[in-house]
């Protein structure tokens, strides 16, 4: 097939920075423990007596995370989370971090967010799994209130690939589904921990008709995506960029999709693409050759995301800007990414339609 370009990449002038910030945005892939304000980490470290921070100057701490994570390896990227999780162990800390997350996203023009975190990583000071979930949800309700309702936030509960608590976390997801939890995710080091290790968790979620996404196709290639989609039943894929392993691009610009790539595209399985994070972990070489543009032109359901605002030193606006610089995207592409994200949100259909028709479409029209 030939690469189509239904949504023209550069139909209009490049959007200005102010346009990008004001444009309504939706983020489906953003980790709570990867997006703290540096100053908050330092204050929380003082409060809880954590002495392991590499520096206590906020700007230097922010730069430290970005640099330490910029190693070309997912495993090294993940090591930096020890510092954020260390200060997120009490109800007050979790509440504060969640409330600030909602405020920061809203200030960046995000109107809908699904924020994920692994409850099992917040038990060190004695909270129960239920208490962790309640603290985070209460913090998000407070953050939404502080922004005057400009943002709606749901959470995804993450099971860690290398531990054995995924079934418990899946049960927790089902238990809290009517109270702020939108779905489930699996994250952590991909190599040596295939998603099929967590089959009982996915079976539990399916028995209860619960939504889930899986990080796959980041450090491992197409076989990880195949397991996530066909063995585990993921509705969306976290990253998924290595689906390109199953796509052949020919010299004349045409492309041939393998059966897996065709299945993912034809079933509209959303890819939660996080370009800056991919550059840091080595899943992509640079913005200009990032597969997001190829996948978009081939008709995949593409959403644009931050992954970890602190650790990747990014925001939704900065991800938009990188796409403008690399591919010349105009407003139409960003509106399409945003609509795609809300269409793939773990929300009831009428609610997705309401956000698209009453917030996203009019928001872009008014810019
Ligand atoms: O991009 C990622 N791939 C795999 N795991 C990740 C990524 N970003 C964050 N995580 C891990 C580290 C966090 O502690 C955990 C839960 O948010 O999820
Ligand atoms: Zn992630």
UniProtKB/TrEMBL annotation:
<feature type="site" description="Important for catalytic activity">
    <location>
        <position position="239"/>
    </location>
</feature>
<protein>
    <recommendedName>
        <fullName>Adenosine deaminase</fullName>
        <ecNumber>3.5.4.4</ecNumber>
    </recommendedName>
</protein>
<dbReference type="InterPro" id="IPR001365">
    <property type="entry name" value="A_deaminase_dom"/>
</dbReference>
<dbReference type="GO" id="GO:0046103">
    <property type="term" value="P:inosine biosynthetic process"/>
</dbReference>
<feature type="binding site">
    <location>
        <position position="307"/>
    </location>
    <ligand>
        <name>Zn(2+)</name>
    </ligand>
</feature>
<dbReference type="InterPro" id="IPR028893">
    <property type="entry name" value="A_deaminase"/>
</dbReference>
<feature type="binding site">
    <location>
        <position position="31"/>
    </location>
    <ligand>
        <name>Zn(2+)</name>
    </ligand>
</feature>
<feature type="active site" description="Proton donor">
    <location>
        <position position="218"/>
    </location>
</feature>
<dbReference type="GO" id="GO:0008270">
    <property type="term" value="F:zinc ion binding"/>
</dbReference>
<dbReference type="GO" id="GO:0009168">
    <property type="term" value="P:purine ribonucleoside monophosphate biosynthetic process"/>
</dbReference>
<keyword id="KW-0862">Zinc</keyword>
<feature type="binding site">
    <location>
        <position position="31"/>
    </location>
    <ligand>
        <name>substrate</name>
    </ligand>
</feature>
<comment type="similarity">
    <text>Belongs to the metallo-dependent hydrolases superfamily. Adenosine and AMP deaminases family. Adenosine deaminase subfamily.</text>
</comment>
<dbReference type="GO" id="GO:0005829">
    <property type="term" value="C:cytosol"/>
</dbReference>
<feature type="binding site">
    <location>
        <position position="188"/>
    </location>
    <ligand>
        <name>substrate</name>
    </ligand>
</feature>
<dbReference type="GO" id="GO:0043103">
    <property type="term" value="P:hypoxanthine salvage"/>
</dbReference>
<keyword id="KW-0546">Nucleotide metabolism</keyword>
<comment type="function">
    <text>Catalyzes the hydrolytic deamination of adenosine and 2-deoxyadenosine.</text>
</comment>
<feature type="binding site">
    <location>
        <position position="215"/>
    </location>
    <ligand>
        <name>Zn(2+)</name>
    </ligand>
</feature>
<dbReference type="Pfam" id="PF00962">
    <property type="entry name" value="A_deaminase"/>
</dbReference>
<dbReference type="GO" id="GO:0006154">
    <property type="term" value="P:adenosine catabolic process"/>
</dbReference>
<keyword id="KW-0479">Metal-binding</keyword>
<dbReference type="GO" id="GO:0004000">
    <property type="term" value="F:adenosine deaminase activity"/>
</dbReference>
<dbReference type="InterPro" id="IPR032466">
    <property type="entry name" value="Metal_Hydrolase"/>
</dbReference>
<keyword id="KW-0378">Hydrolase</keyword>
<dbReference type="InterPro" id="IPR006330">
    <property type="entry name" value="Ado/ade_deaminase"/>
</dbReference>
<feature type="domain" description="Adenosine deaminase">
    <location>
        <begin position="24"/>
        <end position="360"/>
    </location>
</feature>
<feature type="binding site">
    <location>
        <position position="33"/>
    </location>
    <ligand>
        <name>substrate</name>
    </ligand>
</feature>
<feature type="binding site">
    <location>
        <position position="29"/>
    </location>
    <ligand>
        <name>Zn(2+)</name>
    </ligand>
</feature>
<dbReference type="GO" id="GO:0009117">
    <property type="term" value="P:nucleotide metabolic process"/>
</dbReference>
């Amino acid at each position: 097939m030939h690469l189509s370009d239904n949504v023209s990449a550069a139909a209009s002038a490049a959007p200005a920075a102010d346009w990008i910030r004001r444009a309504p945005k939706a983020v489906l892939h953003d980790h709570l423990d990867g997006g703290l304000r540096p100053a908050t980490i330092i204050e929380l470290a003082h409060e809880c007596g954590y002495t392991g921070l590499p520096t206590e100057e906020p700007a230097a701490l922010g730069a430290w995370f970005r640099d330490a994570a910029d190693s070309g390896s997912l495993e090294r990227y993940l090591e930096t989370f020890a510092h954020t999780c260390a200060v997120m162990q009490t109800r007050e800390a979790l509440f504060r971090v969640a409330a600030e997350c909602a405020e920061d996203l809203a200030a960046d023009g995000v109107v809908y967010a699904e924020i994920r975190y692994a409850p099992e990583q917040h038990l060190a000071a004695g909270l129960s799994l239920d208490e962790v979930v309640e603290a985070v949800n209460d913090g998000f309700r407070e953050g939404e209130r502080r922004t005057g309702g400009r943002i709606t936030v749901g959470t995804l509960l993450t099971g860690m690939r290398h531990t054995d608590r995924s079934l418990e976390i899946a049960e927790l997801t089902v238990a809290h589904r009517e109270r702020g939890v939108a779905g489930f995710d699996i994250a952590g080091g991909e190599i040596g921990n295939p998603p099929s290790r967590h089959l009982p968790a996915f079976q539990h979620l399916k028995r209860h008709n619960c939504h889930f996404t899986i990080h796959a196709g980041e450090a491992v290639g197409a076989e990880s995506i195949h397991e996530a989609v066909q063995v585990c039943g993921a509705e969306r894929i976290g990253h998924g960029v290595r689906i390109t392993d199953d796509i052949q691009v020919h010299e004349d610009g045409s492309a041939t999709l393998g059966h897996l790539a065709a299945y993912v595209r034809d079933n509209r399985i959303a890819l939660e693409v996080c370009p800056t994070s991919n550059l840091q972990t080595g899943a992509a070489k640079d913005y200009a050759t990032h597969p997001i543009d190829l996948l978009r032109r081939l008709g995949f359901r593409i959403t644009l995301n931050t992954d970890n605002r602190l650790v990747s030193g990014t925001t939704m606006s900065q991800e938009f800007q990188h796409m403008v610089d690399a591919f010349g995207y105009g407003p139409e592409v960003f509106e399409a990414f945003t609509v795609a994200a809300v269409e793939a949100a773990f929300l009831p259909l009428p609610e997705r339609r309401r956000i698209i028709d009453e917030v996203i479409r009019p928001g872009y029209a008014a810019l």
